[in-house]
Structure formats: C-alpha cells, structure tokens
Amino acid sequence: MVFDFLRRGTGSDVPETKASARGPVVAWHNAGRVAWSPRDAVSLTRTGFSGNPVGFRSVKLIAEAAAALPLVLQDQDQRFDVHPVLALVKRPNAAQGRAELLETLFGQLLLSGNGYIEAVQGEGGLPLELHVLRSDRMAVVPGADGWPIAYEYTVGGKKHRFDASGAVSPICHIKSFHPQDDHYGFAPMQAAAMAVDVHNAASRWSKALLDNAARPSGALVWKGSDGHGVMAEDQFRRLSDEIEANYQGARNAGRPMVLEGGLDWKPMGFSPSDMEFQKTKEAAAREIALAYGVPPMLLGIQGDATYANYQEANRAFYRLTVLPLVTRVAATLSEWLSEFSGEVVELKPDLDQVPALSAERDAQWARVAKADFLTDSEKRALLGLPALAADVDG
Predict the structure, then answer these.
(1) Which of 215, 290, 306, 355 lies 20 to 30 Å from 224, alpha-carbon distance?
(2) Neighbours of 249 (CB within 10 A)
(3) pLDDT at 76
C-alpha cells in the first residue's frame, strides 16, 4: 500500500524477545536477495509464454513460420510428388493437418527443449497416425547402457509406458542441445528466464502505478499547533484508515483530498531510477528476442537498429533461426519414418518456395547456371536437387 509506511506501533507494545546470535548473520545474508521464478518447464511456460507478450510472440512467430515452410521428399534418385510419407505428413491424424502438427511440435521444442512424436502403428510399414505428446508429461527411462529403453507419459496419477527397446521406437524424441543433460534438451526459455522475470516485474510495476492514478506516492506531513510533528495514536490510526478507504486505488483516482488543519501533502516525484524503468523493460524484451533468435524489429520493439530494414531482418530470421530448426527436425523425422518402411528418404525444406529467401536463391541459381566447368549433376547437387536418372544409371 502507498501509505503503509505510516503504520506504526508504540515502543511499549513490543514484548522483549530473545534470539540466537546467528540471527543477524542469517538476516543479513538473505536480505536483498533476488526472487527468481522457478526454472522447470511448466513454470517457465506459464511465466514466459502465457504471461509474457514478448515470449509468446517469439515462440508463435518461429513455430508458425517453421510449420508453414514447404517440405519436399526425395531420395538419391528422384524427388517425389506422391509418396506414402508425404501423405502421412500431410494428414498425420484425424484432428490435425500438417501445419497444426508441426506447429505443436516446434512450440514444444521452443518452450521445453524437447519434442515427442508418437507413432500409431498398424500391421506393418509406415504408422497409421502421428501425434505430438506434451513434453512436460514425458519422462525418459534409460537402460543400463544409458540409452532410452522406454518413455513414460503421465497424466494425473496414471502412466502409460512406451517400450522403446524394439527395432523401431514408437516415440521420436527430438531435443535441443544441452551441455549438462544426457536425455533432455535445453529450451531457449531457460536462457531467457531472467529477462522474462525482469520484463514481468516491470509490467507489474506499471500496473501498480496505474492503480495509483499513474502518480508516484507522496507523504502527509503533520505540523501540530505546538510546532511538533507527532500525532496521537488514535489520530494516526484514523488518518491511515481514511486514506486507505477513500483515496487509494484505481476507483479513487483523481478524487481530491480534504485535509484538516496542520496536515500538508508533499507529492514525491519520479526519481532518475524510475525514469529508467521503461528502458530496462525494453532491454529485457530484446534479451528475450535474442534468446529465441528473433530480430527485435519483427516484434515491434523500438530503438533497435541492428538491421537496415524490415526485409533484411526477415531474411536473417529465416536464414539463422527458422531454417536450421526445420532442417534438423525434418531430418530426424525422415530418418525415424524410414526405419518403419525400410526406404531411405529425406524430408527437407524447399528453399525455392520461401519468399524471404527469393533474392538469395535467384542469385544462387544464376551463379550456378553460369558455371560452365560444372556438369549438370554437380549443378543439381549444389542446388539441393537429386541427380539425373541418366547419371545414376551411368
């Protein structure tokens, strides 16, 4: 409360207490320590995604862009227009299409560092359906050699165990690099956790300021008739209660204060540290965007001039953030699906259909086409295309 500092008690009311000699040491050690939010995946998702607009937009921007990226399927000989793997990815289950499934998968990866896909197997060959499982409900069960032998999915008090000891695991576990964990990935949200706490604290401070009529607090100064600034206890209590009931909070914003004789209101202006609060919030927003690899310009964060224009920032976003993520996930997914069918195929992003990279691709095509010292097969390999059938037969 704004006027809580007015509340006091008389010295005679405080009973004498005894305490250990270590008390002051412990109090001094703990005083002023920063209170950070928990660092588990559920808490980070709640504070950094559900409760923070910068984290929410960063994750949504990457997941939606990555899920919308066109994918092609090919082997060493040809690029497929029709294939069972393409059909499965296009319609992975009855409730989701390709974009919904991949957006969920990328979102789980960005929030927890782990993505799990379940294969609903039929009698043989490729799975009948694919489902993305929530990362916070999954647990890796390592074997004696350290490799996963099972995965446990927990909902409430119930558990389902996926046996991964067979020839092909029913779970495809995609994880980000973690330098200190053998089985789980490291999420960007963990690296941005401090910035998320700072940004959320700044938002709460701004909300508290608005509830106080967007003004800093002030002080009531009492000058008695005798020239002393000491009020009687009953006067102090009555004044504090009246201020709390009639003048504090948003519902009393703008209400004039009626003061009795001897009372003088002294408003407190913003200190230089208060004036820098907005800059601290903007710096925290940039750090969150930095952890996810999203140019702040794309999030509407003011004051960032890293890129010359929006088009350059968008191209860097696709080249440095979206493409590496999609390439790694598509490669892992295609290897896993190849184990079911026994046919070695590769899913990869089609760079020629990404508008943000059109200028780069046009320049690359023109440069490769002018290289007369290269064969057609070498040119196709440079452009990411499969070799010609005549070259394969030869």
Answers:
(1) 215
(2) 15
(3) 81
41 contacts 135 by C-beta, under 8 angstroms: yes
- Bridge partners of residue 347, in order along the sequence: 73
Q: Round to whole Å and give the CA distance between 174 and 329.
A: 7
How do residues 135-168 score in pLDDT, each as one tens digit?
Answer: 999 999 998 888 899 999 999 889 999 999 888 9
Other Cβ atoms within 10 Å of 51 Cβ, number: 15
Q: Are 334 and 117 in contact (CB under 8 A)?
A: no
User: What angle (nearest 5°) sits at the alpha carbon of residue 201, between those of residues 196 and 204?
Assistant: 130
- What is the DSSP secondary structure assignment for residue 72, as one 8-state letter? E
20-29, 317-326, 353-362: range with highest mean pLDDT: 317-326
Rounded to whole angstroms, the Cα distance separating 65 from 62 reads 5
Structure tokens at 334: 């295609």
In 3D space, the residue among 4, 12, 69 whose CA is nearest the CA of residue 327 turns out to be: 69
The full 3-state SS of 210-238, as one line of letters, equals HHCCCCCCEEEEECCCCCCCCCCHHHHHH
Specify if 394 maps to a domain: yes
Q: pLDDT tens for residues 309-326?
A: 888 888 899 999 999 999
Question: 0.85 exceeded by the pTM?
Answer: no
Sheet holding 148-155, edge to edge: 138-142, 148-155, 158-163
| Residue 380 structural domain | 357-394
Query: Does 103 map to a domain?
Result: no
- Pairing of β 79-80 and β 71-74: antiparallel
How many residues are present in the chain?
Answer: 394
The amino acid sitting at 361 is R
Number of domains in the chain: 1
Kindly state whether residue 175 falls inside one of the protein's structural domains: no
